[in-house]
Amino acid sequence: MSNQSSVEIQTEWDIVAARQLGRNVAKELGFGTVDQARITTAISELARNIYLYAGQGKIEIQRLTENGINGILIIAADNGPGIPDVRKVMEDGFSTSGGLGAGLPGVKRLMDDFKIETTLGEGTDIRATKWLR
Amino acid sequence: MNKQMARYIQENMTEIISNWQEMMKNEKSERSFEVMPAELMDQTSREFAELMTSNLLESHQAYESRLNDFAEKVVRYGWSITFVTKAINHFGEIVFNGMERDGIITNENLRGFTEEFNKWITPIRDSTIDTYSKTWERTVSLQKIALQELSASLIPVFDKVSVMPLVGTIDTERARLIMENLLEGVVKHRAEVILLDITGVPVVDTMVAHHIIQAADAVRLVGAKCMLVGIRPEIAQTIVTLGINLNEFTTTSTLQRGVEQALAWTNRKIVEVDEE
């Protein structure tokens, strides 16, 4: 069962729109302020990655219910260049853009489940879930 | 034909307007029309009708200025562009149907009148959309400027101590402004301690942190110390989870503590004065 909405990422300001959407959904689902901050930060990282590396893509926010537990699913999808070495980007401190390199591993730690699928030259699809406890 | 149309509209103004209002109310998708007070609606409708006839009767200049006024008003009321184009189309329809009913438009001159109507309606629609988008563009660019003015000011609070309160989203453009204003301000105010207050920053992700770290490094290079204050508990948790290293920073939860710390660094403190 799911209920979805999405934001196209094309400009830097769309990142703000995406995390606003995420924050609203998280609030409605009953997440506390700390989890809301985690979720919005995760969305911010994923949306920024799309903006920086793929140019454009989409952030989708879904409400999930599994075994009576509610959760929020963030899907970050783009048709960008893909990630050559997934293991490397999941290491702390690795960055190709001179950033902190804490983005993707950070998102993984902020959320409960984290899945990444990427094909060189075709794009990247990241799914991250947070369950309401 | 133009004159005929104009005369018809003027003679039947009240009826046309009430028909038109009826039709617009049936546009379910639009709420703005319903919530409008009746008085305001009547006035707006009349203005709209005058605008529609102005194109037929008055000089081009008068029409242009009316159009601008109206489009600006529409933007202020928050009418959507679809609603406005619908309003124009409906107005045309009503006039056309009315003239047909009254026998002004007959089968013989139908073709000519249709053409005239198109010549009448199309430019109004085009220029409304044009004015509409221009007004929006101006609003947006003004807001951008307003936002920029708010974005990063360095406030000297004590001798050698300055505060930069950051409120809202930090994007690349703002990060650049923050850096510029910080460095300029440090030199100008001869600040030794800078307090960066992030109480008003909703999300601190790796990019924001990266910009803050860079700004602090730059401040250090010009001989001042940077302190990060106003870290809310939930932000503290996300920073730790993200694995951002702020160990080189002095950080405090509130601006107040930050100020106390800054004064301590510059060998001062706030004391209560005994009243004698």
Automatic annotation (TrEMBL), chain A:
Keywords: Kinase, Serine/threonine-protein kinase, Transferase. One of its GO terms (molecular function) is protein serine/threonine kinase activity. It holds the Pfam family HATPase_c. InterPro entries: HATPase_C_sf, HATPase_dom. This is Serine/threonine protein kinase. The keyword Translocase does not apply. Residues 34-133 form the Histidine kinase/HSP90-like ATPase domain. Signal peptide: none annotated. It comes from Planococcus salinarum.
UniProtKB/TrEMBL annotation, chain B:
It comes from the Bacteria. SUPFAM superfamilies: SpoIIaa-like. The keyword Transferase does not apply. InterPro entries: Bact_StressResp_Reg (IPR051932), Globin/Proto (IPR012292), RsbRA_N (IPR014792), STAS_dom (IPR002645), STAS_dom_sf (IPR036513). The keyword Phosphoprotein applies. Keywords: Phosphoprotein. Residues 151-262 form the STAS domain. This is RsbR protein.
